[in-house]
Structures are given as structure tokens and as C-alpha cells.
Write a structure and sequence with these properties.
With about 450 residues, this protein is an alpha/beta fold. It has three domains: about 180 residues; about 180 residues, P-loop containing nucleotide triphosphate hydrolases (Rossmann fold); about 55 residues. Helix content is about 50%, strand content about 10%. It has 20 helices and seven strands. It has a seven-stranded mixed beta sheet with strand order 2-1-4-5-6-3-7, with helices on both faces. Helix 2 runs antiparallel to helix 3. The longest helix has 18 residues. The chain is globular. About 5% of the residues have low confidence.
Length: about 450
Amino acid sequence: MEHSKLSSMLLALDSLSIYRGLLENRVISKVKALLTSLNKADVVLREALNSYHEFYFELAQESATMSLKDYILEQIIFDENPFTLQHQTTQSNSSNNIIEKAAAQDLTNLQLISQLNPALVKANLFELYKTGPYATLIEGLPEWILESHSLNPADHLNHITAHINTCTYWSDSLEELKKFHQHYGCGLFVRYFAFVWERANGSGYIRGIASPDPITLNELVDYQNERSRVVENTLQFLEGFPANNVLLYGDRGTGKSSTVKALLNEYHSHGLRMLEVPKAYLADFPLIIRLLKNRAQKFIIFVDDLVFGDNEENYTSLKAVLEGGLESKTSNLVIYATSNRRHLVKEYFSERAGLQSGNHNEEVHAGDSMQEKLSLADRFGISVVFSSPDQKRYLKIVDGIAAQKHLTIDEERLHREALQWALWYNGRSARTARQFVDWIEGHDAIKSPNC
């Protein structure tokens, strides 16, 4: 009986079609290797035990719950395949019944595989090795659990996981899975909400960030007027209304980058995603647009500390996307950039002199080049200036951060040392204020008699 169940599970794995990519998964590939070793006409105990432990090792590496069922459910939710891609697109108005029927059959097969348990494997081995010194060895094999009932911290993942679990047949969850992918997308974009564009072996790719900067809007003190314009534009974008690309520029340490990152933490549950693109890879914008267009989520392309040298051509790639080109930007994508400079491309006095120069080596139309450089910042629909605070505003920021940390420090001392800190280090800024409060909190804590 046990051998028959194991044979059915192996056949179920071989029968996967739409979710066939899961066969490349490290845990599921080890499940297949284990089932294959147990279904041979002449089962070799050593080979079976090796397969068992290799599977167990991978499950322990990849699953926090040690439940094969939970792990398979997670892979179903995150998988990117013809079914999930069909329903995550913003232009999906109809369903492909043939693909859905195949997906439903795959869910039935995966449900069967999820029922593999240590007792079933051990019973099969006991049938083959009833006598000899092997019984104790088989009995001592480590075990995994069938179901942990643990919940994922993300509410939308909790909902779909619980729904599939409540279905007698996983194939009955197909309609709910369609709604899930229509709203949250599929693959990498369900698993993560923060990403970075990287390159390897000459090719660009999107890498998910497991632990993005946790900064929130509530933690950012002052600059409410500046920040409100960025928040308002982001909300328009999320609601599907026209929205602008945004340039946040101004003095260092004033919270430009923190503002953008805080937006992600505030609104990722509303479908917002953020992809950071290093300045060196701006030429990859056409490829990035092709990868993100028609996705269910809304993407902020984040370019931090943007400035171009006089001989850099990468700014033409950014300019083409901002203003529109053959590979046009889609409605689910906006660009937010930060810079310490209003003019993003370096300009030299020699270029202005070239306007009246009689030097044969100077450009004939020097004015056109100068205007092209100055025009890049103008192509952002919204520009927000973050200026260094005066003394009063700086101390207000210090007070706000200290209040957030519930510090009980005499105000006169707090202000006196905050001003001294700004003189000693980086000048007045929101970043300097936070660095000072972190220092004084630690300084007073270590001096405390209770420490």
C-alpha cells in the first residue's frame, strides 16, 4: 500500500505541466530523487537513505516550519508560470481555459505530493528491510511535520494560504488564485517589494531585497511641506491617476533618500514596489521597462544621488525615458531621483565662454550643448527642494527625534550639545540631528549607574 502511494506521488511530479518549473526547485527536486530511489525495482538502502537525508537537509535549509505542505503552498503562491503570468498582467481581460484546466490538474498533483510524510517513507523501507540491523537505523531517520499552521507576516499571503488550506481539493482554489495574481502579481514581485537592478556576466537582472530600509514617514521629522508634495504625487500614481516623475534635490543630509524609501514602507501593501537603479546602469532603462510594463503593481524607479560628469552619456538614456522615446514609459512606472545638485549635468565656465569664442577647437553650437545639459532637471514634472535647516529648525528636528526615542534630557543641555555637535561634525541637517541624538542616547545610557 505504501509503495503504491509513493509511486502515485512520483507520477504526480512527472505529470506537472504549468507548474513544471517547480521541478527545478531545490527541495522539490530532492523529493523527486527520494521518490525515484524508493520506486526502483531493487531498492538500495544506502541510496534511499542518502536521498532521504539530502531532501531533509534542503527542507531544513529552505523552510522555517519544516513542513513540506507549507513549503509547497509557498512555491505555488510565488511561482511564475503561464497561468500566473496570464492573470497578473494589467491587460488581462480574458482567461485561457486550456491553461486553467492544466493548472487545476497541477494543483491536484501538488496536493498529493504535499502529503508525503516520514511515516510513509519509513513504512516502505520497513517492508523491504524487515530483518537485520537496519530497523533501528530506519526508525531513527529525522522527521518533518505535515503542517505547521504558521501564518506569513504579510496579510495577503495569509489570506490565500488559508483559502487553499480550507479547500478539500486544491484545484477548487483556482478562482481565488486568479484574483490573487491579478491584484498582487506573481513571482519575484509577490515575494518582495523592494528591488535593485544588478548586472552579472554582461546581463542585467532584478534582485529582490529581503530586508529593505525600515524607515517610515512617521520617523521623519519636519520637512512636511516638501514631503507632502511627494506623498500626494505617489497617491495619485497608486490610484491610477496621472502622476509625475519627481526630482528631490538640495543639501546633503536633509532626508531626500529617506523620504523615497519611507514611501515604500508606507504604501507597499497598496501595490507599490520600488526598483533602485544605479546611475551606471541607466542605459538598461529600455530592458527594465519591458520587464515591468503591464505588471499588476506600481513601480517607482529610484535613482539615488544623481549627477553626471561632463563626458557621461548615460544621462541621454534617462532623458529619453523622462521625455518619452520609442520604448515609452508605461502607466505603472514613475521615476523618483535624488540629487544634491539642481543641475544634474556638470557645466563649466569654458562652455559659456565658447558662446563667443573664436577658438576653432570650440563647438560651433556651444549654446545648444549647454541648454541640453540644463534641461535634464526640467524634464522631471515635480522638483522639490530640501534645504539645510537654520538653527531654529535644526533644534526642532533634534527635539522631534529625541521625543520619538522618549529621551528625558534637559532641553538646554540637549540644544547646547546639539549645536556643538553640528559645529564639530557635518553642519546642520536632519541627518546630523539624528546622528547626534543616537550619540547622546548611547552616551547617557553607558554613563547611567544602572548600565
